[in-house]
Write a structure and sequence with these properties.
mainly alpha; 15 helices; 77% helix
């Protein structure tokens, strides 16, 4: 993403936080970011598309930060999960995501509402996947129910804690308290063998070809995160930096969020990365290529199983 487009996203985000999405006009965004109407429409077809770009930028950073916490740690370590949830709550508060979600829910923009719905389901899927890491595969039948209950428990605890203390500074205490309740809840539900929702429902709500891809995501970030962190060291030209990042973004979007990943485009992007002008990260990019090869093999096996 070029610097000017990112500048518009950052400025618009500030306006949406200060004034609200509905109260902020496109003219407000033009004035605040110092761009022309033509430049705005070069980047975004509407204010809603701009808001979606903000959501994507926030989620991309959150996803990276959450996965960085897993590097060198056991996925079953509940302390890592607690830190991931704390990080997510801090990000939500900083970026006013809950307030923006609530405001958007009252609009008539179908695309925006659909994006929010899918984003929430993705968050739920991530949580169920982490619960499987922590509470074991044997408890999987109960973990969708527990994830739904935990989300409600956590949000209400945070909301009423703010009301009680007039402060946002006790997030870590609230998260730990809520996770402690979660541990007991999973045990109780599993022992009672009670189930409200079938875990297969999540796949119906949010179809995904990449089954069991959690390990893939961890491996992907183990390789890509250090590359992103040192990109300015190896590329002096900003255009080269942006191109490299955009290719990594494209591969990530295709394998993690696309129902039908386009293998030939991913392979082309990987080849371009391997031929980067700085001639660096050959070993890392070859490992990334191996991971993606395994990913497509798993897709083919899953498709055969489905038939």
């Amino acid at each position: 993403m070029n610097d000017r487009k990112q500048h518009v996203i950052n400025k618009a985000h500030q306006l949406f936080i200060e004034k609200g999405f509905q109260a902020t006009s496109i003219q407000d965004i033009l004035d605040y970011s110092g761009i022309s109407k033509g430049t705005f429409y070069k980047y975004f077809s509407s204010k809603s598309e701009l808001l979606i770009a903000i959501y994507k930028a926030v989620f991309k950073q959150l996803q990276k930060d959450r996965n960085d916490l897993l590097i060198g740690k056991s996925p079953s370590d509940i302390e890592v999960f607690i830190k991931q949830i704390e990080l997510q709550m801090i990000s939500n508060r900083k970026n006013k995501l809950i307030a923006l979600y609530e405001e958007v829910s009252s609009t008539n923009d179908a695309d925006l509402k659909q994006y929010i719905r899918v984003a929430r389901l993705r968050s739920l899927r991530w949580m169920v996947t982490r619960f499987i890491d922590i509470f074991d595969e044997k408890n999987k039948p109960y973990l969708l129910d527990c994830a739904i209950m935990f989300q409600g428990l956590l949000q209400n605890n945070l909301q009423y804690n703010r009301l009680a203390t007039d402060s946002n500074e006790q997030i870590s205490n609230v998260v730990r308290y809520s996770v402690n309740r979660l541990v007991k809840m999973v045990k109780e539900v599993a022992e009672a063998d009670e189930q409200l929702h079938q875990p297969e429902l999540l796949e119906q709500w949010l179809p995904s070809l990449q089954k069991n891809n959690h390990e893939l995501i961890i491996q992907f970030y183990k390789i890509v995160s250090p590359m992103r962190n040192s990109i300015t060291k190896h590329f002096q030209d900003k255009i080269d930096q942006e191109k490299f990042n955009e290719l990594l973004d494209f591969i990530q979007e295709e394998i993690m969020h696309t129902r039908a990943p386009r293998k030939f485009l991913i392979e082309s992007a990987l080849q371009t990365l391997l031929n980067n002008p700085a001639d660096v990260w050959k070993k890392e990019l070859l490992l990334l290529n191996q991971i993606i090869t395994v990913f497509f093999q798993q897709l083919e096996e899953n498709e055969e199983d489905d038939h």
